[in-house]
TrEMBL record, chain A:
Main localization, broad class: nucleus
Compositionally biased residues, Acidic residues: 834-845
Descriptive protein name: DNA damage-binding protein 1
RSE1/DDB1/CPSF1 second beta-propeller domain location: 442-761
Domain RSE1/DDB1/CPSF1 first beta-propeller intervals: 14-367
From TrEMBL, chain B:
A Pfam cross-reference name: SF3b10
GO biological process: mRNA splicing, via spliceosome
Protein family per UniProt: Belongs to the SF3B5 family.
Record organism: Arabis nemorensis
Entry GO CC: precatalytic spliceosome; U2 snRNP
InterPro entries with a match to the protein in the record: SF3b5/RDS3-10, Splicing_factor_3B_subunit_5
Protein name: Splicing factor subunit
Length: 1214, 87
C-alpha cells in the first residue's frame, strides 16, 4: 500500500512570532512560525490580518529573531530550527518568497540537548547573533556587510560552558561598544555528584554576560552574577542614547532589572487576588516598545494578565522599576507590538488576536514598584489586583486557530453534499466544538425579496471608466426590472431598458453605451439616450448570446449565428453570419485582450455533445478552428485566463494560459487549455461539481478574473498565491450571478435564488475550510454520536479549576466586594457558555480571562449533549467531587430493555504529580430520554483504575481499566464483570472491535490484537507489535490492519501477516493460540509495520473518511497544532512511480527552506515507508520555470502535465 | 591490536565524551545513564513545541509554565544521586 500524504488545513497554532519590517518600505509585518510552517502576516488598512506568504519548511522551527544591519532599510529573519544550521532569510517582495541568504551548519540535526537552535538572540544594532541550546553550547556569528552591501556571516565563535543549563538568552543594548549577550544559566555539575542533596539545594542560577570582542574576534564571559532562582526569561532594555542598557530578568513572581555594576532593582509581579498561595506567577511572553523618547515593556503572565513595566532612569542609573496592570488577554506564545499601534497576540491555544491600543496605560491602576517593595518574614509582600475589562486595548480582528484539536469526526449529519468535520478544539474556557465544511466562507451583504421568480441578473456600469456599477438588471420570465445603485438600491424607469420583455444579456458596449439583448432583438442605448433597435429576421428569436465589451454574437433558434462588432463610433455593426448544424446550447467570447480591438475566439457548445472554437478574426470570420467532444451536452461556457504558477505575487513571470471552461449537463466542469494562437484545445481536466449543470460566470476576485460556477452548490475558481483553486462556497444554491461593485462593497457578487436577490462577498480567500463554532465549558476530551438521533455527546474535563457553582459564588462575592461600579451589572444568573446565551459584553468573560486557578488536585468535568443542527446544548451534567470524565461510548446491551445507552468512564481525585494517584474510577451508564436530548443516570460502577477506553462488543461493554481489559454486562444496580485479561503492559487507551477481534491500543506499547472465545469465555492476545509506540490516536482500517499515531508525531500502519491471520481464523479449537506463549512475555505473533511517516506534530485523532461525494476514503488526521491532513491510497502503480520520482527530484532540486533534509525529517524517528509527501510535491508550482522544466523533462512530461497530476491528486481527497 | 592503538581509541573516546554530553563509558552507573536519558527527554520535549502543548493540555498549565517546569526538572531529573560505594 502506498499513500499520498497531503495537509488539508495547515497548522493554525503559532509557536513564535516576531514583528519587523521585512519587505522594506513602511509596512509592518509579522513573521510567525507554526511548527513546520513559516508565515508572513500583515495587518491591512482595515485592521484585518492578511497572510502574505506561507511556506512549509519541513523542519521544526523553534525560534525566530529579526535584525537589521546598521543603516539598513529592512529586517532579516534568523531561524533557529532542528536542522543543526543557522538560516538567515530575507523576504523578497517582488517574487513573494523568502530568499535564503545564509545557511551555516554547526551541529547534528534534530531537537537535541546540546545542539543550538532553541534560543536566538541578536545584538540590537544587528552586528551579531547568538544561537543557543538547552545545555552547554552557544555560538555567536558576526554579521557584517561586504563591499556590495550584501550580508556576510562569520564562522561561529564558541561560548560553551559544559554542565550548564540555559534558560534564556538575549542581546544587551550597549550602543556601538562590543556586542554583549546575556544568558540565565544553571550549573548542575555539583548537584549530580552530591548524594546529600546539599549541592542541589544550593544550586544557583546565574546571569552571565558574554562579550563579543569585535577586534579580537573572540567571545568571553564578561560578567556573571547570581540571580533569583525562579528566573526564566530575559528582556533587552534599550541602551546607548535611548536608555540605561542592561536586562530585565523575569522570574517567578518578580521582575528584576540587572546590569553590570548596577545594584538590582526588583519589583513583584502583582497577583490575582483569587490565586492559590501555592502558585507562582511566571512571565511567559514579553514585548518591548520604543517610542521617540520613552520605552516600555509589556509582560504577559501565564494567566493572561498583561503588565506594563517602566524604568525610571537618569542616564545609566535606574532608580525605580514599576509594574502596572495593563489588561488581560488570552495567554500568548508571543506578543508583538507594531509601530502602527497594534498588538498582535499569538495565543497558545485558541484564536489569535489583533488588538489596537486605546491608551498606553497612563491612567492610575494597580501598580507595584521597586521603591515600595516590602520584605517580611515570609518573603516579599505581594501586591494584589482584580482583572477588569479591557481598558487600554480593543480587539479588532482575530485569526482562527483550531489548536489544540482534541478529537474529530467526519460525518454527514446535516445531509449536505459533502460531509462535515466535527472537531473539538481549544482548552478550558476557550474550548469549542467547531463544525468545518470544505469551502470558502462568504459574508452576506444584503438579501431582498423580488416580486416573482427572477431568472437572471446582470450589473452594468454607465461608462467604462466608472469605478462602480450603475444598474442591477433582473430578468423575469416576462419582464425586466432595473434597479439603480446609489445610497440605496431602488427601481428606476428612465434607464432606457425595455421592461416588458425578458432579457438574455445586459452589458456595457463600447465606452459608454448599454446593450440589452432580448428574445426579439438587440436594444442599443446610446449615452445621450438615443435608442437603436435591431430586430430578428422573421419570426425567429434569439436563444443564446455571447458578448464582451466590443463584440456580440447571438444564436437564433435553428442554429444561425450572427456576429456584431462595435465600431469606432460605438455603433453595433453586423459583421458575419454562420449557419450551425443544429441548435446552439451555449456561447462565449473571450474578453478583449488589453490593447486589442477584438478577441479572437468564440466558443460554441452544441447539443451534439461538442464544443467548437470559432475564429472572430476578419480574415477567417466564424470559421471553425477546433472541435472537442465532451461527455454530455454543454450548458454554459466561459473563457478564463489563468496564470498557473507563482513567480511574484501576481504570477507575472509566467505566461498566462487561456482556459475554456464548460459546464456540462451531467454536472461536470470541463477545463481545457486553448492555444492562444491557433485555438487548438488540449490538456483537459474535469471535475464533478454537483447535481445541476454548472452555469459559469466571470467575476473578479482581488482585481483578477475569476469564475463562479453555479451547480447544486456554488463554486469559485480563482487564483490565490499563484495556484488556481476551485473551491465550493458555503452558501445555498444559486441560479444566476453577476459581479457587483459599489461604494459599500468593492468586490462582491449579486445573485438570484428563489425569489430573492442576494449580494455577498468572499472572506479569507485561500482557506480550505470554513467553520461554525459552538462554545464549550471545559477542555473537551472525546465525543460520540448518537447513531440514530444524530446528537453529539461530549465529555469535557479540566484539572485545577473550580466548578461552575463555586465560580458563580466567587464572582458574586467579588462583585459585592468591589461594588458594581466598574464591573457593571453582575450577571450572576448567567451560566457561562452553558447554552447560547454567551454574552460578549460580560465584563469578566472567562473566554478572555481564563478560569480562576484552583489547587491542582481539583477537577471539574461535564457531560454535554449537543444538537449540531441548532448548536443547542440540550443536556449538561456537571460531575461533582473532583470527578473527571475521560472516555465515552454508546452501547447496546443484549437485553434490549433500554436500547442505546451511554457509557462514560470517569476518575475521581486524579493526581499526576508527584506520583500518579487516584481515589477511584467509575463507569457511569446513562439512558437517553426525551428523544436522546437528555441523559438519565442508570447506575455507576466503581473500578480500580482509570477507564480510558470503552467500546461496545457483542452486546456487552469492553473497558480498558489501566492494564486490564474487561468485559462487562449490564446489571440492575451495576455492571457485571464477565471476563478479563490482565496481561497488557501499561495502560489501555483505545479499544476497537471488528467481528470477534478486539484491537487494543496500549499507551506505550502500540497495538495488541485480541480474540474473544465465547465458549471458553476468555480473552486472548494473539498478536502484538514489536515497536514500543506511545499511542495518541488509533483507527481500525481493515480486518488485519490498524492505523496509529504516536506522541512523537509519527503515523504508522501495522498489519497482521496474511498467513498468520488465516491460521488464526481457521483454527477451530483456538487451543494453539491459548497455550502458545511468545518470547519475553510478548504475544506469539507479531504484526508488520507497513506504513510509516513523520508528520512532525502530535496527532490526536485518526479517521477513515471521504470528503468528496462518491470518492474513495482516505485516512484523515488532526493534530495538536490544529492542522488536518489526509493519507490517500494510490490506486495505480504508475501514479506511485510518478509521484515518488517527483518527490525525489523535488528533494534534490528544492531542499527545504530552513536547512532540514526532507527525507531525514520525514524519517525523524523511524524511516519513512511507502508514503509520498504531497506537501513537498505541491511546492512544484513555486519553483522557477526553468527548474520546473528540468524536472518535467526528467519525468518525461511537461510542467503543465505535472500541475494537472497534482491537481488531480488533491481533487481525489477534497 | 597494539598498545598504541588502544591508547588511540581511548583518546578518541575521551574526545567524544568531552564533545558530546552523554557519551557513555565502561563504568557508567545506572543512575548516570538514567539522568542522561531524562535530560535528553526533557530537552526534546522543550524543542518539540507540539509535544510541549500536549503536556500543557494534560496538566492544564500554560505552555510557558510547562517549558519552565521541564527546564527546572533538568537539574535533578532522577532525584538525588546514590551514595558512592567506596572501593
Amino acid at each position: 500500500m502506498y499513500l499520498y500524504s497531503l495537509t488539508l488545513q495547515q497548522a493554525t497554532g503559532i509557536t513564535c512570532a516576531i514583528n519587523g519590517n521585512f519587505s522594506g518600505g513602511k509596512a509592518q509585518e509579522i513573521a510567525v512560525a507554526r511548527g513546520k510552517i513559516l508565515d508572513l502576516l500583515r495587518p491591512d488598512e482595515n485592521g484585518k490580518i492578511q497572510t502574505i506568504h506561507s511556506v512549509e519548511v519541513f523542519g521544526a522551527i523553534r525560534s525566530l529573531a529579526q535584525f537589521r544591519l546598521t543603516g539598513g532599510q529592512k529586517d532579516y529573519i534568523v531561524v533557529g530550527s532542528d536542522s543543526g544550521r543557522i538560516v538567515i532569510l530575507e523576504y523578497n517582495k517582488e517574487k513573494n518568497v523568502f530568499d535564503k541568504v545564509h545557511q551555516e551548519t554547526f551541529g547534528k540535526s534534530g531537537c537535541r540537548r546540546i545542539v543550538p537552535g532553541q534560543y536566538l538572540a541578536v545584538d540590537p544594532k544587528g552586528r551579531a547573533v547568538m544561537v543557543g541550546a538547552c545545555e552547554k553550547q552557544k555560538l555567536v556569528y558576526v554579521l557584517n556587510r561586504d563591499t556590495a552591501a550584501r550580508l556576510t556571516i562569520s564562522s561561529p565563535l564558541e561560548a560553551h560552558k559544559s554542565h550548564t543549563i540555559c534558560y534564556s538568552v538575549c542581546g544587551v543594548d550597549c550602543g556601538f561598544d562590543n556586542p554583549v549577550f546575556a544568558a540565565v544559566e544553571l550549573d548542575y555539575s555539583e548537584a549530580d555528584q552530591d548524594p546529600t542533596g546539599q549541592a542541589s539545594s544550593e544550586a544557583q542560577k546565574h546571569l552571565t554576560f558574554y562579550e563579543l570582542d569585535l577586534g579580537l574576534n573572540h567571545v568571553s564571559r564578561k560578567w556573571s552574577e547570581p540571580v533569583d532562582n525562579g528566573a526564566n526569561m530575559l528582556v533587552t532594555v534599550p541602551g546607548g542614547a535611548d536608555g540605561p542598557s542592561g536586562v530585565l530578568v523575569c522570574a517567578e513572581n518578580f521582575v528584576i532589572y540587572k546590569n553590570q555594576g548596577h545594584p538590582d532593582v526588583r519589583a513583584v509581579i502583582p497577583r490575582r487576588a483569587d490565586l492559590p498561595a501555592e502558585r507562582g506567577v511566571l512571565v511567559v511572553s514579553a514585548a518591548m516598545h520604543k517610542q521617540k523618547t520613552t520605552f516600555f515593556f509589556l509582560l504577559q503572565t501565564e494567566y493572561g494578565d498583561v503588565f506594563k513595566a517602566t524604568l525610571d532612569h537618569d542616564g545609566d542609573h535606574v532608580s525605580e522599576l514599576k509594574i502596572k496592570y495593563f489588561d488581560t488577554i488570552p495567554v500568548a506564545a508571543s506578543i508583538c507590538v507594531l509601530k502602527l499601534g497594534f498588538l498582535f497576540a499569538a495565543s497558545e491555544f485558541g484564536n489569535h488576536g489583533l488588538y489596537q491600543f486605546q491608551a498606553i496605560g497612563d491612567e492610575p491602576d494597580v501598580e507595584s514598584s521597586s521603591s515600595n517593595l516590602m520584605e517580611t518574614e515570609d518573603g516579599f509582600q505581594p501586591v494584589f489586583f482584580q482583572p477588569r475589562r479591557l481598558k487600554n486595548l480593543v480587539r479588532i480582528d482575530q485569526v482562527e486557530s483550531l489548536m489544540p484539536l482534541m478529537d474529530m469526526k467526519i460525518l454527514n449529519l446535516f445531509e449536505e453534499e459533502t460531509p462535515q468535520i466535527f472537531s473539538l478544539c481549544g482548552r478550558g474556557p476557550r474550548s469549542s466544538l467547531r463544525i468545518l465544511r470544505p469551502g470558502l466562507a462568504i459574508s452576506e451583504m444584503a438579501v431582498s425579496q423580488l416580486p416573482g421568480q427572477p431568472s437572471a441578473v446582470w450589473t452594468v456600469k454607465k461608462n467604462v471608466s466608472d469605478e462602480f456599477d450603475a444598474y442591477i438588471v433582473v430578468s423575469f420570465t416576462n419582464a425586466t426590472l432595473v434597479l439603480s445603485i446609489g445610497e440605496t438600491v431602488e427601481e428606476v424607469n428612465d434607464s432606457g431598458f425595455l421592461d416588458t420583455t425578458p432579457s438574455l444579456a445586459v452589458s456595457l458596449i463600447g465606452d459608454d453605451s448599454l446593450m440589452q439583448v432580448h428574445p426579439n432583438g438587440i436594444r442599443h442605448i446610446r449615452e445621450d439616450g438615443r435608442i437603436n433597435e435591431w430586430r430578428t429576421p422573421g419570426k425567429r428569436s434569439i436563444v443564446k448570446v455571447g458578448y464582451n465589451r466590443l463584440q456580440v454574437v447571438i444564436a437564433l433558434s435553428g442554429g444561425e449565428l450572427i456576429y456584431f462588432e462595435a465600431d469606432m463610433t460605438g455603433q453595433l455593426m453586423e459583421v458575419e453570419k454562420h449557419e450551425m448544424s443544429g441548435d446552439v446550447a451555449c456561447l462565449d467570447i473571450a474578453p478583449v485582450p488589453e490593447g486589442r480591438q477584438r478577441s479572437r475566439f468564440l466558443a460554441v457548445g452544441s447539443y451534439d455533445n461538442t464544443v467548437r472554437i470559432l475564429s472572430l478574426d476578419p480574415d477567417d470570420c466564424l470559421q471553425i478552428l477546433s472541435v472537442q467532444s465532451v461527455s454530455s451536452a454543454p450548458e454554459s461556457l466561459l473563457f478564463l485566463e489563468v496564470q498557473a504558477s507563482i513567480g511574484g505575487d501576481d504570477g507575472a513571470d509566467h505566461p498566462a494560459s487561456l482556459f475554456l471552461n464548460s459546464g456540462l449537463q451531467n454536472g461536470v466542469l470541463f477545463r481545457t487549455v486553448v492555444d492562444m494562437v491557433t485555438g487548438q484545445l488540449s490538456d483537459s481536466r474535469s471535475r464533478f461539481l454537483g447535481l445541476k449543470p454548472p452555469k459559469l460566470f466571470a467575476i473578479s476576485v482581488r482585481g483578477r478574473s475569476a469564475m463562479l460556477c453555479l451547480s447544486s452548490r456554488p463554486w469559485l475558481g480563482y487564483i490565490h498565491r499563484g495556484h488556481f483553486h476551485l473551491t465550493p462556497l458555503s452558501y445555498e444554491t444559486l441560479e444566476f450571478a453577476a459581479p457587483f461593485s459599489s461604494d459599500q462593497c468593492a468586490e462582491g457578487v449579486v445573485s438570484v435564488a428563489g425569489d430573492a436577490l442576494r449580494i455577498f462577498m468572499f472572506d479569507r480567500l485561500g482557506e480550505t475550510f470554513n467553520e461554525t463554532m459552538v462554545p464549550l465549558r471545559y477542555t473537551p476530551r472525546k465525543f460520540v454520536v448518537h447513531p440514530k438521533k444524530k446528537l453529539l455527546v461530549i465529555v469535557e474535563s479540566d484539572q485545577g479549576a473550580f466548578t461552575a457553582e463555586e465560580r458563580e459564588a466567587a464572582r458574586k462575592e467579588s462583585f459585592q466586594a468591589g461594588g458594581a461600579g466598574e464591573n457593571g451589572n453582575g450577571s450572576a444568573d448567567q451560566m457561562e457558555n452553558g447554552g447560547d446565551d454567551e454574552d460578549k459584553e460580560d465584563p469578566l468573560c472567562d473566554e478572555q480571562y481564563g478560569y480562576p486557578k484552583a489547587e491542582s488536585e481539583k477537577w471539574v468535568s461535564c457531560i454535554r449533549v449537543v444538537d449540531p443542527k441548532t448548536a443547542d446544548t440540550t443536556c449538561l451534567l456537571e460531575l461533582q467531587d473532583n470527578e473527571a470524565a475521560y472516555s465515552v461510548c454508546t452501547v447496546n446491551f443484549h437485553d434490549k430493555e433500554y436500547g442505546t445507552l451511554l457509557a462514560v468512564g470517569t476518575v475521581k481525585g486524579m493526581q499526576f504529580w508527584p506520583k500518579k494517584r487516584l481515589v477511584a474510577g467509575f463507569i457511569h451508564i446513562y439512558r437517553f430520554v426525551e428523544e436522546g436530548r437528555k441523559l438519565e443516570l442508570l447506575h455507576k460502577t466503581q473500578v480500580e483504575g482509570v477507564p480510558l477506553a470503552l467500546c461496545q462488543f457483542q452486546g456487552r461493554l469492553l473497558a480498558g481499566i489501566g492494564p486490564v481489559l474487561r468485559l462487562y454486562d449490564l446489571g440492575k444496580k451495576r455492571l457485571l464483570r464477565k471476563c478479563e485479561n490482565k496481561l497488557f503492559p501499561n495502560t489501555i487507551i483505545s479499544i476497537q472491535t471488528y467481528r470477534d477481534r478486539i484491537y487494543v491500543g496500549d499507551i506505550q506499547e502500540s497495538f495488541h490484537y485480541c480474540k474473544y472465545r465465547r465458549d471458553e469465555n476468555q480473552l486472548y492476545i494473539f498478536a502484538d507489535d514489536c515497536v514500543p509506540r506511545w499511542l495518541t490516536a488509533s483507527h481500525h482500517v481493515d480486518f488485519d490492519t490498524m492505523a496509529g499515531a504516536d506522541k512523537f508525531g509519527n503515523i504508522y500502519f501495522v498489519r497482521l501477516p496474511q498467513d498468520v491471520s488465516e491460521e488464526i481464523e481457521e483454527d477451530p479449537t483456538g487451543g494453539k493460540i491459548k497455550w502458545e506463549q511468545g518470547k519475553l512475555n510478548g504475544a506469539p505473533n507479531k504484526v508488520d509495520e507497513i506504513v510509516q511517516f513523520h508528520v512532525g506534530d502530535v496527532v490526536t485523532c485518526l479517521q477513515k473518511a471521504s470528503m468528496i461525494p462518491g470518492g474513495s476514503e482516505s485516512i484523515m488526521y488532526g493534530t495538536v497544532m490544529g492542522s488536518i491532513g489526509a493519507l490517500h491510497a494510490f490506486t495505480s502503480r504508475d501514479d506511485v512511480d510518478f509521484f515518488s520520482h517527483l518527490e525525489m527530484h523535488m528533494r534534490q532540486e528544492y531542499p527545504p527552506l530552513c536547512g532540514r533534509d526532507h527525507m531525514a525529517y520525514r524519517s525523524a524517528y523511524f524511516p519513512v515507508k511507502d508514503v509520498i509527501d504531497g506537501d513537498l510535491c505541491e511546492q512544484f508550482p513555486t519553483l522557477p520555470i526553468d527548474l520546473q522544466r528540468k524536472i518535467a523533462d526528467e519525468l518525461d512530461r511537461t510542467p503543465a502535465e505535472i500541475l494537472k497530476k497534482l491537481e488531480d491528486a488533491r481533487n481525489k481527497i477534497i | 591490536m597494539q598498545a598504541s592503538d588502544r591508547f588511540n581509541i581511548n583518546s578518541q573516546l575521551e574526545h567524544l565524551q568531552a564533545k558530546y554530553v552523554g557519551t557513555g563509558h565502561a563504568d557508567l552507573s545506572r543512575f548516570e545513564w538514567a539522568v542522561n536519558i531524562q535530560r535528553d527527554s526533557y530537552a526534546s520535549y522543550i524543542g518539540h513545541y507540539p509535544m510541549l502543548a500536549y503536556f500543557a493540555i494534560a496538566e492544564n498549565e500554560s505552555i510557558g509554565r510547562e517549558r519552565y517546569n521541564f527546564m527546572q526538572k533538568m537539574l535533578l531529573p532522577c532525584g538525588l544521586p546514590p551514595e558512592r560505594e567506596d572501593d
